[in-house]
Amino acid sequence: MPVTARVSHEVNAQADSLPADGRFELKHKQRIRPLLWSWIHFLIYFVIQTVFGIYIRFAHAYSSLVHRALAIRHHHYHSPEYIQRDVATLSRVPEHLSVILKRRPQEDDGALEALMDEVAELTVWSAAAGVPLLSVYERTGVLKNYMREVQELVELRLASYFGRVNSPTLRMYAPNHSSAVTTTSASATNSTNNTAVEQKPTPQQRVHIDLLLLSATDGRDTLVDLTRTLAEMAQSKKLHPNDITPELIDTEIMATTIIPDQDLLDQPDDHHQKPAAKEVGAGEPDLLIIFGSQVKLDGYPPWQIRLSEMFCVGDVGGDINAPTRVEYQAFLRALWKYAGAEMRFGK
């Protein structure tokens, strides 16, 4: 006879040997104990949920308070001098800064305009902070369809911060897109001859920034196209299979984000003027800022962020698919974290 059946048989035998009142009390206890344990479990679960709920609410309130305090203390006031002051004490700034943005739902009015405005603000902040290359990733690639509009908005924002004469030069590029062209700002290099109050800038006052627009097609689709091309070349005997090495693949993938050469339009006749870089290889970002509540790459090209420092902006526990507002204090906190990070390079 199994042990369980034998124990049950012994308990029933003991219950039968008890008086009628004893048998009723024993059966009553057997019914009460499971109910009692279920209530205890529910009480423990309720206490844990309540404690964590209170903790999360206090954490959100504290985080919001700190963010508001930083926003008040460190505000750019649409002046690059304030931004330069905020980053003056940093030991380093990223040579390549990348951000992940999310477009608001299609039904929201002004979603595209808000996204373009965020790109313009980030470009201005990066230029003022001394970041020479900014790449903006948006999964759908809608920004690539409005290259000219984005450029015009960024140029206007640069001029509003730096002034028309001192406005940084801008170069934009969007790889793997039918309308992807390299656009270079012309207004940044044109000064008004009939304005006496504006002085000709010195070479140290002029800066240059490159803006790279990325989307999901620059990730998986790039790898698929490269694989198809290498396979066709190997089949046609144009490339030996032994020549397909990790170094070759890495070089070809990185080449897709190189900003092509293009001279500045309407370059002023000044041999002291510092020219823009002829060609920029984006490479891996030094810092990746994720504007979202959780670390979600959303299709970002994985081979470009192997050694990148990541900084996530947003309330923990928020909607993972909801866009997070782009704010200067979050941008500044990311630069602070990058300056204090220990770069082990995978070791």
Question: Secondary-structure map with pairings?
Answer:
Blueprint: H1 3-17, H2 20-73, H3 80-87, E1 96-101, H4 111-129, E2 133-138, H5 147-162, E3 169-173, E4 183-184, E5 208-214, H6 220-235, H7 246-255, E6 258-259, E7 280-281, E8 287-291, E9 309-313, H8 328-340
Helix pairs in contact: 3-4, 4-5
Describe this structure in words.
By secondary structure, this protein is α/β, with parallel strands linked by helices. The protein folds into two domains: 59 residues; 267 residues, Decaprenyl diphosphate synthase-like (Undecaprenyl pyrophosphate synthetase, 3-Layer(aba) Sandwich). The protein is built from eight helices and nine strands. The strands form two sheets. A seven-stranded mixed β-sheet has the order 4-3-5-2-1-8-9, with helices on one face. The radius of gyration is 31 Å and the shape is globular. About 10% of the residues have low confidence.
